[in-house]
Every structure is written in structure tokens, then in C-alpha cells.
Amino acid sequence: MTSPVRVRFAPSPTGKLHIGGARTAIYNWAFARSHQGTFILRIDDTDPTRSTKENTEIILRALRWLGLDWDEGPDAGGDFGPYAQAERLDIYQKTAQRLLEEGHAYPCFCTQEMLAQDREEAKARKDPNQGYQKRCRHLTHDEAQRRMEAGEPYTLRIKVPENRGDIIIDDAVHGRVVFDAHEVDDFVILRSNGTPTYNFATVVDDAAMQISHVIRGDDHLSNTPRQVMVYEALGAPTPIFAHISMILGADGKKLSKRHGATSVEEYRDAGYVSDAFVNYLALLGWSLDGETTIIPRDVLASRFSLDRISKNPATFDPKKLDWMNAEYISAMDDSRFADEILLPELVEAGFVEVGDEFDESWIDALASIVKPRTKFLGDAAPIAEPVFQHADTLVFDERSVAKGLAPEGMGKVLDAAEEVLSHLKNTDWNPETIDAALETLPEALDMKKRQVFQAVRVAICGNLVSPPLGQTMALIGSKDCLARLKRARGLAG
Ligand code: GLU
């Protein structure tokens, strides 16, 4: 029987959730979901100077916005908690103590100065091992004991076995990676103040939480041989490692602030749809079949596999993300667009209030004209705005007035439009009858169709870029449309 899939995303709350972290979280989540596994969120907050509660909250909020639900972790609980490292200090200390007792770790009393001097000397003689020179490894048990009891400060170091040989990692992305054991010195696992180092805390937790696969950024590949040493000292099985490539900006450099927005929140606030954002990030280094680009969340959650992760760095392309965002919006049906985008945006803009009741077909009709023009969530309310104005509150765009209303003869157009439209009874007030009525005007007035429609459009919507006229006017209603035509008469040439 193969062991169940248990994976974790382990952010350090030293900042916001960035694109790279979000992609790591997505891969872990998608891998767990695709393999009926468990997705664990663990907060790696052992660095008290840089970790904050606010950052943890921001990260949780970002993960929720991404729709990455975790099975175990903060708020969710689970059998392997606590899920914040700052709450697990006693576990690290007890485990380090156990390794000390079993002879897999030893106390080191070297001062910073001694360590620096050893390093300098190793450098000067071009020693292949420029790490810790193992001074304290050879202290007798009694001496070490005596100095610890005398209260001398000490760290605990792992004892890398003599003749360990190469450390081989069969990485699910990079394949076989061989590290010379000499590169791994007897590194510190517990500092003199009792806090664990990253390589120790991570492995203690990954072992205790029975993590089966460690999927993380390949900036951690170089830490992995050290971590393997800890697994071996603990007598715990090593998980499968999958180190995912870096994300680069268009200039081939590691993605950073210089390339624009990097935090998930900034994308949320800029009006990206969570599903589109997740889809786009998933494709930064992974592919379903090498060609499919639109991969809905449920497909990602059933078909994600490690063997289709690329070793090569991925390039972040904001244009492709924008394209994908627009694709997701246009693929929504009108009711979903109305519920998930339009109404929340209208509430946000103050055009409607939570709890306002709308006729379903009316709101769907509005959605159908707003949706094709919406590339980002924030576009929706301004596009719909004219519908929520009234004849007396409508704001006119100056340039549109100058172009569409002010030229000579436009007053005549508005009069004629009012005349033909006033004949439409309320029951006949629909996009087809409105358009048909307006269609008669160019010939009757001997004017260009474009001019006629522009004038009416500016009178009704205040600008030249609004959605199709008949549909918009049907939504506004006959009474207010006629009042708008009257009001605009004062601006028309
Ligand atoms: N807290 C570490 C980080 O944010 C986790 C690395 C790991 O996944 O082991 O980089």
C-alpha cells in the first residue's frame, strides 16, 4: 500500500503572499486534490523579528481568495497541530535533546569569533570544507556535559556521519541530484537561545506531520541535503521532493517589484478573477498536455501531476494573464456574471445596496451587455453606470457632448427621437422596438446613421462608449429615456 499523499504549503509570514508563493500553494493544493490527499497549511513563523500576525492574516486571506482550501492548518485544525512553528518550540527542543542523547547531535561552544577565524583559515588553505571545522565534535562526553552544566552557552549541531557518502536526491522535477556529503558540515539545529534553525524545524515538522511530498521553490534545493541529514538522524523516511523552477520577468531576471505587482492582493484589487489568476499561475511551469491553456479549477484539482512540471524557469507574462482574465469573464454565463461580478461591483460603487431586489431577467439583460465589455472586475460598474442614473443626475462627458451632441442639427435628432419613441407603449419598450424606431430616423432626417445614433447615445448615456443603445434604453425604461432626451436638448446644436 502506498502512503497517502500529505503535502504542505509553509509560508514564512515575513511579507505578503507573492506570485511565486501562490504558485507553490496552488501546486500543493492541486496535487493533494488530484491524489485524494491532504493539503496542510503551516505557518513558518520561527523568525520573531520578521514574522507578524498581520502578515499571517494577509496570507490566509490571499489563499482564501485563491480558493485554496486547506484540510489542516490555522483555523482548520487537524491531528498534527499546532500548525504554527512558533507554537512548536518545545517540540523542536525535545527532538533536539533526543538527538543529543542518541548521539546524532552534539553541543558546540564555539564563539562567533572562533567560527569566523576557522572560516578564514579554511579559506586561506583552500580547504574544500569551508563550513564548520568540527572543533566541538571531538569533545569528550564528560567535558561537553561539564560545560553545559556550568551554563556555558552552546548550540546543538547535527553530527553528519563519517563516510556518509554522496547524498542523492531523486527530485520529482530535477531528477537525480547528487550532493557531495563533504559539502554538508555539522550545521546548527538549535541556537543557543533555544530556537530551531529552518532546516531543523522544517524537517521535524514535515516528519511529524507525515508529509509525503515536499513541493517548493528550487531556491530550497540547496537546503535539501542538510534536511536529508536531519531525516536520517530522526530515523524518519525522507519524503519525495519536487523543487519547482523560479519565475522570471520578461527581462529574464527573477520576478520582483521592478516587474510590477507581485503580491496576490494587488492582483485581487486590480480586478482579476480568482479562477483566471489560479489558472494562469498553474501554467507557470506546469502543463496539462502541452497545449491547453484554459484549465478550470476542477480540472486542475483532478489532473495535476508532478511529472508535467518543467525544470526550466517560467516567464511571467502580464499580457497573457490579462487575456486569460478576459477569457474567464466572457465564458461566464450572464447569471453568474451578475451574481459574482456585476452586483458586488455595483454595491461597491454605491449604485445599488445589498438586499436591493432586481427582476432576474432585468439583471441578466444588464449582465449580457456589461459582460462583453468587462476585462477587469472594476470595469463593470462604470459600464453599467448610465443605467443607474436618472435624467436629472446623468453626468455628461464633455468630449462626447462636443462630438455627438453639440454639432448643428443634433437638436433636431433628439426631437425626432423623442417623437418616435413616445409612440412606443410601455409594453412595446424593448430593444428591438427601440432600435427599429431609431432606425427610421436617418432616412427621415436625411442624416448619417452614425450621427443619429451618436446623438441619442450621448443624450441617454452621457458618453459615446456605452453598450448597445436599444438594450441600454430598454433597461432604463421609457419614461426616463424620454426625460433624458428632453434634458439633452439644452446641450444639442
Ligand atoms: N518557510 C519556508 C519558505 O517560505 C518554507 C520552505 C519549505 O517549503 O520548506 O521559504
Automatic annotation (TrEMBL):
Glutamyl/glutaminyl-tRNA synthetase class Ib catalytic domain residues: 5-323
InterPro entries: aa-tRNA-synth_I_cd-bd (IPR045462), aa-tRNA-synth_I_codon-bd_sub2 (IPR020751), aa-tRNA-synth_I_CS (IPR001412), aa_tRNA-synth_I_cd-bd_sf (IPR008925), Glu-tRNA-ligase_bac/mito (IPR004527), Glu/Gln-tRNA-synth (IPR000924), Glu/Gln-tRNA-synth_Ib_cat-dom (IPR020058), GluQ/Sye (IPR049940)
Motif mapping: 'KMSKS' region: 254-258
Any one GO molecular-function label of the UniProt entry: glutamate-tRNA ligase activity
Co-factor binding comment: Binds 1 zinc ion per subunit.
Keywords: Aminoacyl-tRNA synthetase, ATP-binding, Cytoplasm, Ligase, Metal-binding, Nucleotide-binding, Protein biosynthesis, Zinc
Coiled-coil blocks: none
Catalytic reaction(s) noted: tRNA(Glu) + L-glutamate + ATP = L-glutamyl-tRNA(Glu) + AMP + diphosphate
Residues spanned by motif 'HIGH' region: 11-21
Pfam families, A to Z: Anticodon_2, tRNA-synt_1c
Chief location bin: cytoplasm
Binding-site residues, Zn(2+): C108, C110, C136, H138
Cofactor(s) this protein cannot do without: Zn(2+)
Domain Aminoacyl-tRNA synthetase class I anticodon-binding: 351-488
Binding-site positions, ATP: K257
Subcellular location: Cytoplasm
EC identifiers of the protein: 6.1.1.17
Record has Aminoacyl-tRNA synthetase as a keyword: yes
Reported function: Catalyzes the attachment of glutamate to tRNA(Glu) in a two-step reaction: glutamate is first activated by ATP to form Glu-AMP and then transferred to the acceptor end of tRNA(Glu).
Similarity comment: family membership: Belongs to the class-I aminoacyl-tRNA synthetase family. Glutamate--tRNA ligase type 1 subfamily.
Subunit structure: Monomer.
NCBIfam families hit by this protein: gltX_bact (TIGR00464), PRK05710.1-4 (NF004315)
Protein name in the entry: Glutamate--tRNA ligase
